[in-house]
Design a protein that fits this description.
NiFe_EhaM (chains A, B); Hypothetical protein MTH393; homodimer; 7 helices; 0% strand; 2 domains; elongated; mainly alpha; (NiFe)-hydrogenase-3-type complex Eha, EhaM (chains A, B); EhaM-like_sf (chains A, B)
């Protein structure tokens, strides 16, 4: 009986190791998911990978890349809101409209993720768009 | 006729100056609204104050303080999401629940704004809460 429990335990441990390998081998996931999360939480990257591996089955480990690209786009949009002060300027003080803010956010995210412009340059484009709108009489 | 136009113009200019004075004299608005927005947009603080003064009537200039406190709470919550990676961890990857994330965000915002804890310390409390949740089996 204790042998079966041992085999089971070993199976779970091996599966976890294999899932961690799948996740670790994906360069995109490493650079754009695990390392940023580890930095935000001040955790070890290996610990972060283990958390994901424990949470996900094998199929989900392979699908994580596609999903992460969507997540990256969504989360970057929120970062743009903070970095450009859109939260204040648009949502609370209405100095520019929601439609204008959506357009600017989208433009910055696309510039950076699709056209590979460095984030600060993409942000600068967005900043110029806001300033232009704000200065329109 | 041109005299009336001149008087009108002068009235508008004077009103603008007075509104700018009202806004500029409010220490809270300066420190927590105009300066952060000026930094985010890399604009001159005076320009930012002028934008608000142009947009607002006198009553709204006086009401801005109360409104700004709400805005500050809302926008800080979004910054916490970014700084703690809640956007990834909760919204996209579901490693913690939405209720847990709401609670952590609220705790950090209150610690900083109501209990005047330095932002990084408040953030650290939130970080510890997340790590505890993530490590629970």
């Amino acid at each position: 009986m204790s042998e079966i429990v041992d085999i089971d335990k070993r199976y779970v441990e091996n599966a976890l190791k294999q899932k961690m390998n799948v996740l670790r081998d994906n360069r995109y996931l490493m650079d754009d998911v695990f390392i940023p999360i580890a930095k935000a939480l001040k955790m070890d990257v290996e610990e972060v990978i283990e958390l994901f591996a424990k949470k996900l089955d094998f199929a989900s480990c392979y699908e994580l890349h596609a999903y992460a690209e969507q997540a990256r786009m969504g989360c970057l949009g929120r970062k743009v809101d903070i970095d450009l002060g859109l939260c204040w300027i648009c949502d609370f003080f209405g100095l520019i409209t929601k439609e204008e803010a959506d357009l600017i956010r989208k433009k910055v995210v696309e510039s950076h993720l699709l056209y590979k412009k460095p984030y600060n340059e993409a942000l600068e484009e967005g900043r110029q768009m806001i300033i232009k709108l704000l200065k329109e009489e």
